[in-house]
């Protein structure tokens, strides 16, 4: 599976989403996590600082330049999964990552209303209600 975590807006949890996707996919096959954010090396730093990073199953590389597709394309067949973490405000990198991906995940920052409703969605099992006829 090839997935891009991207959004041209900053601060939407693209790196967090990409890292968690890559770690989850690494459970089912060798995974490449491509840190394509020239503004910060979030995914690379995360993998270096995590004490229990599964380095043999989830390889992380920085590839945030205008030759992203050309650099990564020859590597695609070496991995069962590839996850791209594309930084904000860089439509060229996003387009290149998408050209190598099958899926796009667009993280968005929730509004206040979304956060208020979140508590309701974590109530399981639902509270029984009475039906009136």
Q: Which residue ranges are poorly predicted, with pLDDT under 50 across at least 5 consecutive positions?
A: 128-133
- Silhouette: globular
Q: How would you state the average pLDDT, rounded?
A: 88
The helix tally amounts to: 5
What gyration radius follows from the Cα positions, in whole Å? 18 Å
Structural summary, described in words:
With 133 residues, this protein is an alpha/beta fold. It has helices at residues 14-26, 42-49, 68-72, 91-99, 112-121; strands spanning 2-5, 31-36, 58-62, 81-86, 103-105. Helices cover 34% and strands 18% of the residues. The chain is globular and about 45 Å long.
Q: In brief, what are we looking at here?
A:
With 133 residues, the chain is an alpha/beta fold. 34% of the residues lie in helices and 18% in strands.
Salient structural properties:
disordered C terminus; 133 residues
Walk me through the topology.
Elements: E1 2-5, H1 14-26, E2 31-36, H2 42-49, E3 58-62, H3 68-72, E4 81-86, H4 91-99, E5 103-105, H5 112-121
Parallel strand pairs: 1-4, 1-5, 2-3, 2-4
């Amino acid at each position: 599976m090839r997935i891009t975590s991207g959004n041209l807006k900053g601060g939407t949890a693209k790196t967090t989403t990409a890292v968690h996707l890559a770690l989850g996919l690494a459970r089912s096959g060798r995974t490449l996590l491509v840190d394509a954010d020239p503004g910060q090396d979030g995914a690379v730093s995360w993998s270096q600082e995590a004490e229990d990073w599964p380095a043999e199953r989830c390889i992380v590389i920085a590839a945030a330049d205008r030759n992203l597709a050309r650099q990564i394309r020859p590597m695609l067949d070496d991995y069962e999964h590839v996850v791209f973490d594309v930084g904000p405000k860089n439509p060229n990198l996003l387009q290149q990552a998408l050209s190598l991906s099958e899926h796009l995940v667009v993280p968005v920052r929730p509004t206040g209303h979304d956060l208020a409703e979140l508590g309701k969605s974590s109530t399981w099992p639902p509270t029984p209600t009475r039906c009136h006829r």
